[in-house]
Structures are given as structure tokens and as C-alpha cells.
User: What shape does this take?
Amino acid sequence: MSGLQIVVCVKFVLDPKDISEESIDPATGTINRANYKLVINPLDKHALFAARQLQKIAGGTVTVVSMGPPSIVEDLTETLALGADKVFLFSDPLFAGADTLATSYTLASGIKKFVSSFDLILCGARSLDGSTAQVGPQLAVHLGIPWVTNLSAFNWQQDRFVNLKMKLEDGYLSFAVKPPVLFTVNRDINQPSPPTLMDIVMARSKNVTIISAQDINLESNRVGLTGSPTRFKEIFYYPTKRKKELLFGSPEEMVKALFQELRTKGMFGQ
Amino acid sequence: MNFQFTAEQELLRKSMREFAETQIAPLVEEMERTDKMPLDLVKKMANQGYYGVTIPQAYGGSNLGHVARLITLEEVGRISAAVSMSLQCLQFGGGCLNNSGNEAQKQKYIPDFIRGKNNAAAAITEATGGSDPSATATEAIEHDDYYLLNGRKVFITNSDIADMAIVLAKTKDEPKKEFSTFIVDKSMAGFRAGRVENKIGFKGCGTGELIFDNCKVPKENLLGKPGQGLAIALKGISEYGRVGIIGVALGIMQASYEAALKFSRERVIYGKPISNLPAVYYRIAEIYADIEASRLLAYRAVWLLDQGKNADVEIAAAKFFVTEAALRCTRKAMDIHGGYGCVKEYAVERYCRDAQLLIPADGTNDIQRTVVGRTLTASKK
Assistant: This one.
């Protein structure tokens, strides 16, 4: 097979524009997902865009994998318009309630079965809802490949990925790595653009394949709620309030007082 | 009956919204200030394929159809009526070429037009008034292998960025007036843009004169046959121009609705958000009803076009209803904003200025009533 075989993991999350305090049912502490629109997890969109850019340079195939109910098939069409050549949706009632461990196990099993040979797996660094940043690294462990997280940049050169820029709290780590490998990416990696009208037309000729638990070789006690050691205790709305404080004096005095106040609040570090 | 957009149309709307919010919204303030269209944006829209939404793939278009075109315009109009207006008029020019051009003309002009290298304007209106194209005074005198064009078009959208124009001109005066359309491009001496109007709205979308001063137009640039000019122009005005105006109007209405809703929920008077006041939520209910009615009229009309049917009456009815509804909605949104509705910090005043410009565009609303009324009374439809 010529070119790179790239797999992109895509999660659908609730559109944050729609979510407010009223979205949470006070009795159950849950959000009824059926009432809200889903969007591609923003960092996963960056990952997909990075895959598309890489494909333009190195050739090959971009395969999207996702997990969720069959109702997200239409949403997944967007990934086809955004450059995916193939999309696999792992969907089965048995997968419901999966935490990161069960999710990464299911994705890894599906990838092994349906994308036997791959050079790169790309994930968003974290999801907008769970925000654990665990699925990428766990998936790499399941697949037995190295991983690099929180990448702001990378390039492809001959037989390896070079100029990897791994973002840390106080700087970057830079190195090169040979495939197969898994990267998680942050928002600095690129600026995704929406699909063009021709991208939308081209998506017509591509399909989303739904894969059930039966189609994959899975240990049933490792998927869904059964395979998930994590338990949600509570979801609640954390209210934020604006605080108003009036400063008086000359502009110089007010600026000084403002900076003093901000310093006291730890805005400029210790 | 099926009132649902297809999954593809929903995806189109989503991607248009994303483009408008990320690429157009940051430019609106500067466009209001400078009254100039950012040329980078024009290129970006071309790269996204927005010019070729109704044009066959053989010429580089996506051929997604008229419903899709209305979606593109509505979503762009929600962020900037000026950009939506500019886009719809570009599509109008390209649409006329596609409707009436011969193969050689299409091959020569459309692919570059779709790539944003050949901005097309539709040049019909003259100082005698756009409502009566039969009063067109621009003349095209036939010579051996060319026509000599002389005249001045006014109120031409995109006059400042046009590389070419579809021009309606008189080709015979006696015994009976005859009109023809021509493709005039910038390589032809004697074709130039004139003054640009200082309008109350659509800031950034240039509207002005196109001047033809002894402009030699090769005969192969005659669009359609001699004498078909009025038919070509009127078809373009109806299927592209009026539909385009409707798309801009829908965008303005949606923006007004969202602004009114947001402000009413945040503005507190008597200790509660004003959205609790009947005077406010009645207005919001009326805006909502106007939007729903407008969308039904508008999308059904363009759906008819996609079915290959004539929709002149439905489009004319939608044009006057939707544009007047847009003006009503923007006024109500301003009322809800109280004093803040009259300051430029809030976008509702822009929506209102832009909505007013929809009323005379592409045939005043009295002309639309004439189209509908005369057809209904004549045919007992």
C-alpha cells in the first residue's frame, strides 16, 4: 500500500453553545443527550485536519474511527466531507456507558480488526466533555505502539515524523519518531477550515460502516459499563459570578490599585 | 410533505455557519468603517466553492442547487448582509452565464469565475429605473464582427470588484425595441467602473456605476440570441436576484431574532430579565412567526426551481413578504434593545439599515406585487 495509513479517532460531544445550567436535570444530575445537537470534539477536528494535510504530502488513506449510537451516522458524514476516505462507527448497546479504559479497548480492538496496517493514529489531546486526555495514550498501550501527547506541530520526512513539538506547561519538547505511532494534538497544530462545497459533494460517494460488538474479537467483560471501573458520582453546574469593584483616584492611582488587586489574586504568578 | 432538509443540506448549513462565524464576523466592523469589501474574503469564498453552488461540475461548480444556494446566503447573511449581498450578486452573474451561455462562453468564463478570478456582475438597472428594463437606454450598435456599447448602468452591486458584467442593452429601436445581453470583460477598452454610492447599509458591498464608452464587444460575446435580452435578464433577476435578496433577508431576520432573544434574557429591569415582560416576549413571538413563515415561502419557492419548475410568482411573493418581514423584525429587535438599539455597539441598528435596502433591490416590492397580482388575476391561479 503506498503512502501513509492514518487513523483519526473522532468523538462527538454536545455542542457547548447549547449547554447551560438548565441543561442539567436537577433530579438526576444528568444531561439528556438526545435533546441536544452533537458536534465533532473540537480537538478531534484539528486531528482530522492534520491527517488531511499529511495525506496531501505523503499520500495514503485517512480512516476515521468513532464510537457511539447509530444515530451519529449522519453527523459522521461531516468527517467524510472533511477528508476521511473511510469511516468506521463502532456501535453496539454493549458499548454504552464506557469510560476511557473500555473506550480505548474497544477502539483498539476495532482498529486491529478493520485497519490492520497503520502508520499513524491521531487523536485530539482531550475531549470537551470528559477532558481526561486518557483515551489516546490508553489506545497506544492497547495497540503496543509509542505515543506522543499534546503536539503543537509535526512534519513527515522520508520514513519518520520529525520536528515534533510537544507542548509542556513551560515550553516544548522536540524530537523525531518512526511509525507506527500515536499522536494527540492540541489546537496550535493547525486552523481547521470548514469543508468546501466540493468536499460536501465528494462525501456522497463515501460511506460510514457500522461495526457491532459481534464483528470485533472482544472480551465482553472489557467493554461498556461492565468494563468501566470509573463511576460518575455527580454532575453539577459550577456557577461563576462577576464581581464588581469600583476604583477611585487619578488614572495612575487606579491602574496601580488594579494591578495590586490582580497581583493579590495571583494573576501574575507568585 | 417533507419539511426536512437533507443531511447534505444540514451539513452545508453547518459548514456555512462555521465559515461565516470564523472568517466573516471578524471583518464586519472594518467593513462598516471603510465600506470596502476585503478582497481576501472574496478569494476565500471562491476557494470554498460558494460561487458555483448552482453551476454544473463540468465547469467547476458543485451543482448543489437553489435550496443549497439559499442556505449559503442565509448563513452568510446572518453574520453580514453586505457579504451575502455581494455573494448573491456574484452568483447572479455566474447564473446568467450558465443559464444562457453557449459552450464556448461557458468554458471561457465560468471556471475562472468560480475560482474567484473573474468576478461577474449583472448590469441591468439604469438611471431610468430598474423596475422598467424596457426603458434601457444603453445601446449596442452592430458592426461587422462586434457591437459598440455606449451607456451607463447604475446601482450595480459589486461594480467596484467586477471583472466582467452581463449587460442588457438595446439593439434595435425601430420598428420595435429589441434588447440583447452581452458578456463584457475588463479586457475590452471602454468598460470601466464609475462612482460608488454611499448607501445607508450593506457597508462593504460596493454598489455603483458601470460605464460603457464606445466599448467594442466581440460578437461571440452576445449572450443568447439577439432580442432575447429581456427574457435572459428577467429570468436572472427572478431566479438569482430576487432569490438572493430573500436569502440575505432570512439571514438578517435570524440575526435579529438571536440578538433580541439574547438581549432580553440579559437585560434586567424591575429585578428580572425583560424577557419576562409580555411586551417583549410578544415581539419575540412575532419575530419567530415571521421567520417561520418567511422560510416556508422562501424554501418552497427555490425547491420548485430545483424541480425544474417556473417559480416566478412564488419568488415574487416571497420577495415582498420576506423583505418586509425582515424590516419588521429588525425594528422589533431594536425596540427590544431600547436605547441600546440605537447605538452602533449593538448590531441591531445595522440589521435595520441593511433590511431597508432589501425593499427596492431587484424590483421594488410594488413590482413584486404587480408580478403576483397580474398573474393571479389574469390566469385565475
Remarks:
- Chain B is about 50% helix and 15% strand.
